[in-house]
Amino acid sequence: MADLIGNIVKDVVEGVLKEILKKSTRKGTTRRRKRQARSATTGRYVRKTTKRVKAPARKQVSRRRTAAKRSRQRSR
Fold first, then answer.
1. What is the reported pLDDT for 24?
2. What helix, strand, coil percent values describe the chain, rounded to 5?
3. What average pLDDT is seen over the chain?
4. Nearest residue to 48 (alpha-carbon basis) of 63, 58, 38
């Protein structure tokens, strides 16, 4: 009888440990995929032939107004 209870407890402990270890693995974020372009005539997916290099963002030249500055201008 004691052997039976010992086996049950052992199985429960092993199951709990397995569950804890399974959940502790780090999951990275899922990668987003861009929609594939389809051909207008055939409807099949089209491969892009050339990659265009995107220019870096331009530096902001004009200063943004704060909420206080906007309200001050409105009150004039």
1. 58
2. 40, 5, 55
3. 78
4. 38
